[in-house]
């Protein structure tokens, strides 16, 4: 059997194993910070969906091609209600047509065959993808782009009169980030509402938080909220990251002190609570939120949630469906890429009409030092408020040496300090060095057991958790890299009286290198669609400080009030950074399409870190577009992009043709489709490359073969301008751009160019490069990838 085939099988087995492990264990879709149970319920055919019997019936466009309202939607609902009351849970009529109802499997199959029905699928449960970051981005922007003195990025008033709709766990409106002091009247295009609920009245909305909705299942306690109020903190954190007002003196118990603010502090917030406190988000609620948001008049939609990795099915994906119709109505939709990294092909929310966001670090490190005998300092991480002595007076022991004498205990379990594997007498009064490779027990669980055994501290060896700090309260826990862990272990083995201590966490500013790709951030290529490059962009998502519900005693450290700000990691946190930036661009250019805004953000992105070197992954290798898309967001660049790539609805329709959707289904989805439209006879996956997208992905390019794609750019800069093509070409590929010079005039706003890719050498690896249209003022960069498979 060919080695290449075995490698592919091995790779996908790893993905399946990873998903299965995650299904059985606690992970942080907010990264070790929310402890959300990821149970595998995101699969549309999950057992939970079948048990509650709720199906989503998606019927496509809300109007007929002639603009008349549809009557088949009402007729179908009426026929169901006649048979049984309260069978319909949600009805979608604003941006698209459909409903969610309790159906038998037989009824669902029957409805799926009816004219006008695009798809019928079980109601899936999606999961959440769970300050200084904006200051860092402004600094990073300064490395590459000089903002025009005539239109600087104004972080204090950015996004004025734009409305960001957020689908999440709700909002804590009393947070200082959401004050409406000195804010102007509510934008006139707002048509939404402030729903009252448990501990939430209409007075909780103001000129900042202008709308709040929640979506209950009246027949299910599990997914009934009764309020738009945030009970977990995730939605509040996301909302303040996107659009929070500046709050000086913000911190998490005096860590990360500074001014916390959102990316678009002038924007208004509309919260759509679609998720329970534990993280589950019903697809039927997500679709209803999209439907309401379209009618409410939002300008940007931000979703820090999604499904698990796997082959996308856009007709059965609530996020893809809702986003398509929102984009049709001129609303840009920004979604997190997922937290299933660093494995390849794990990126989610990959529909080309969605702006998909990866996560990176900022230049701030949370350092918890370990002091060894002789005052040797090991720079650990994590967030702890330890009260151990500052001098190294506590005995050290490693898990293997502290193994229980019981024969049934595995050495690997002891090395990882698995509860029940260590001897009480060997850990009592000591700091224990533990690996963290068992992928079953959280560090807090391990230390809880160690405490009952009399241990006084724990040093955890884990490269990933060293990058994305977890919070340990007053527990004396520090996290070190494998390299530093080996040094501590060597010290323990070579000293019969090894001593140490763990210091409380301090913040190290101006940390280098930054940004670095978050280890958890999901990676490309796109599963099953290699000719669509995802993620699109990267933004800060590691250790982000933002607002938090002030009554959350679970987050409080002993003898202190609950924090008003909290630190979380995840692509959940990266997504609202981009949503805020999109709102700022929208406020500057109200008539720009969602694709023009996306293009402006992507083509002005940054690829260089604060060491003036290429951005790296968590392993130290150079980041590729599979890791960060076009790069790290720039704050000033998108305000003056020079050129934009506009992707029209017809491009998305051709995309659906190219990946195998039939014309009958497509005509139900899009009301504006010409009656004589049909999918091309040449439609295939390779044709996805022809979409007018700001990035280019070419697959199945054999040695000595060539492929050509066209792109069209629109001039949004000076009328009279000339751009020259600069190509960054990897070894093994020849790239030709024709014409290689674009000359725009007052009457010539759009120009099409052709790119020819030729594989001139054998390569098993995917190859990356870029095409940049440059003049004295603008640099408009598009990444590309060329693959043999």
Automatic annotation (TrEMBL):
It comes from the Eukaryota. InterPro entries: PA_domain, Peptidase_S8/S53_dom, Peptidase_S8/S53_dom_sf, Peptidase_S8_His-AS, Peptidase_S8_Ser-AS, Peptidase_S8_subtilisin-rel, Peptidases_S8_3, S8pro/Inhibitor_I9. One of its GO terms (biological process) is proteolysis. Keywords: Hydrolase, Protease, Serine protease, Signal. The keyword Secreted does not apply. Residues 220-244 are annotated as: Disordered. Signal peptide: none annotated. The active site is at 168 (charge relay system), 234 (charge relay system), 572 (charge relay system). It comes from Penstemon smallii. This is Uncharacterized protein. Residues 414-488 form the PA domain. The keyword Glycoprotein does not apply. GO terms for molecular function: serine-type endopeptidase activity. Residues 691-786 form the Subtilisin-like protease fibronectin type-III domain.
């Amino acid at each position: 059997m060919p080695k290449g085939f075995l490698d592919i099988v091995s790779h996908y087995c790893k993905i399946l194993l990873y998903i299965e492990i995650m299904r059985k264990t606690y992970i942080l879709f907010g990264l070790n910070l929310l402890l959300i149970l990821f149970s595998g319920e995101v699969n549309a055919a999950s057992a939970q969906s079948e048990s509650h019997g709720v199906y989503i019936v998606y019927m496509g466009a809300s109007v007929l091609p002639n603009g008349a309202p549809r009557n088949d939607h009402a007729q179908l609902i009426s026929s169901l209600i006649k048979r049984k009351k309260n069978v319909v849970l949600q009805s979608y009529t604003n941006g698209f047509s459909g409903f969610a109802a309790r159906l038998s499997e037989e009824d669902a199959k029957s409805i799926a065959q009816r004219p006008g029905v695009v798809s019928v699928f079980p109601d899936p449960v999606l999961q959440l993808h769970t300050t200084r970051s904006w200051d860092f981005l402004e600094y990073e922007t300064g490395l590459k782009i000089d903002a025009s003195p005539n239109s600087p990025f104004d972080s204090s008033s950015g996004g004025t009169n734009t409305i960001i709709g957020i689908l999440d766990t709700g909002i804590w409106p009393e947070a200082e980030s959401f004050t409406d002091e000195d804010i102007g009247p509510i934008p006139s295009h707002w048509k939404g509402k402030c729903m009252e609920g448990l501990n939430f009245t209409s007075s909780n909305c103001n000129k900042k938080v202008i709308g709040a909705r929640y979506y209950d299942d009246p027949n299910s306690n599990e997914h009934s909220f009764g309020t738009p109020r945030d009970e977990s903190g995730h939605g509040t954190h996301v909302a303040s990251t996107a659009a929070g007002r500046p709050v000086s003196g913000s911190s998490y118990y005096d860590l990360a002190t500074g001014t916390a603010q959102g990316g678009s502090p002038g924007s208004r917030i509309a919260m759509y609570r679609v998720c329970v406190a534990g993280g589950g988000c019903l697809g039927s609620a997500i679709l209803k939120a999209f439907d309401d948001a379209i009618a409410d008049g939002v300008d940007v939609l931000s979703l820090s949630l999604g499904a698990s990795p796997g082959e996308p099915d856009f007709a059965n994906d609530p996020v893809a469906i809702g986003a398509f119709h929102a984009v049709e109505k001129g609303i840009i939709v920004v979604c997190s890429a997922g937290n299933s990294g660093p494995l390849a092909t794990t990126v989610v929310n990959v529909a080309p009409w969605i702006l998909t966001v990866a996560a990176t670090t900022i230049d701030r490190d949370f350092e918890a030092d370990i002091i060894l005998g002789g005052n040797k300092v090991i720079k650990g991480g994590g967030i702890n408020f330890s009260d151990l002595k500052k001098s190294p007076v506590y005995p050290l022991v490693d898990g293997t040496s502290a193994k229980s004498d019981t024969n049934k205990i595995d050495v690997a379990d002891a090395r990882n300090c698995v509860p029940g594997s260590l001897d009480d007498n060997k850990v009592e009064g000591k700091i224990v060095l533990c690996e963290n490779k068992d992928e079953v027990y959280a560090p807090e669980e391990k230390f809880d057991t160690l405490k009952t055994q009399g241990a006084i501290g724990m040093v955890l060896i884990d490269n990933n958790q060293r990058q994305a700090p977890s919070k340990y309260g007053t527990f004396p826990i520090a996290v070190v890299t494998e390299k530093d862990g080996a040094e501590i272990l060597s010290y323990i083995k070579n000293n019969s009286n090894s001593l140490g201590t763990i210091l409380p966490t301090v913040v190290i500013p101006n940390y280098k290198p930054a940004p670095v790709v978050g280890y958890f951030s999901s990676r490309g290529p796109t599963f099953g669609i290699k000719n669509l490059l995802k993620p699109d962009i990267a933004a800060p998502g590691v250790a982000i400080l933002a607002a938090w519900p002030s009554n959350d005693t679970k987050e409080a450290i002993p003898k202190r009030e609950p924090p008003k700000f909290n630190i979380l990691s995840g692509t959940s946190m990266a997504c609202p950074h981009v949503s805020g930036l999109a709102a700022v661009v929208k406020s500057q250019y109200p008539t720009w399409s969602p694709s023009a805004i996306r293009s402006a953000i992507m083509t002005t992105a940054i690829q260089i870190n604060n060491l003036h070197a290429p951005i790296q992954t968590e392993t130290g290798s150079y980041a590729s577009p599979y890791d960060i898309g076009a790069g790290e967001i720039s704050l000033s660049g998108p305000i003056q992009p020079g050129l934009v790539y506009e992707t029209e609805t017809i491009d998305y329709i051709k995309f659906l043709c190219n990946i195998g959707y039939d014309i009958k289904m497509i005509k139900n989805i899009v009301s504006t489709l010409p009656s004589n439209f049909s999918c091309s006879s040449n439609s295939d996956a390779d044709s996805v490359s022809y979409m007018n997208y700001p990035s280019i992905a070419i697959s199945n390019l054999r040695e000595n073969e060539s492929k050509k794609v066209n792109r069209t750019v629109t001039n949004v800069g000076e009328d009279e301008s000339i751009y020259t093509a600069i190509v960054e070409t990897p070894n093994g590929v020849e790239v030709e751009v024709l014409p290689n010079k674009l000359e725009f005039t007052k009457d010539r706003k759009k120009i099409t160019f052709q790119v020819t890719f030729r594989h001139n050498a054998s390569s098993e690896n995917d190859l990356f490069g870029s095409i940049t249209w440059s003049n004295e003022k603008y640099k408009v960069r598009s990444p590309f990838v060329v693959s043999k498979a």
